[in-house]
Each structure stands twice: as C-alpha cells, then as structure tokens.
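Before a colleague's protein record goes any further, I have to sign it off. Would you go through it and say whether the fold makes sense for this chain? Take the sequence as given and treat only the tokens as open to question. The record follows directly below this note.
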Amino acid sequence: MGRLPKPIFEITTEREGVDRLVTEQEALKIGNISDAELERIRTKILNLMRLCTRG
C-alpha cells in the first residue's frame, strides 16, 4: 500500500450534530485555545500517527 508524502492534519467539529471541517481560525475560536496550544496538539497527533505507521 502506498503512503502519502506527508500526514494530513484536518480539524473537524460536531457542534452542528455532524462532522464538519473547520479552519484553524475557527478551531482556535471554538476551542478557546491559542496558536501555540493548537501547534502542540498538531505535533502530538502527527507524532502519534508516525508511531502507528512505522514499518
């Protein structure tokens, strides 16, 4: 199976009762988080993805 050149990081919300992609700016506002906090979340998720796809 082929791999993507780099992992994809998408942000979604279910506030309306259905999954919906949101922009980073929307995520910051909805989550009431800073740019730095979002970057820490992104880094942790991408590191976890790398661990899960080793091989």
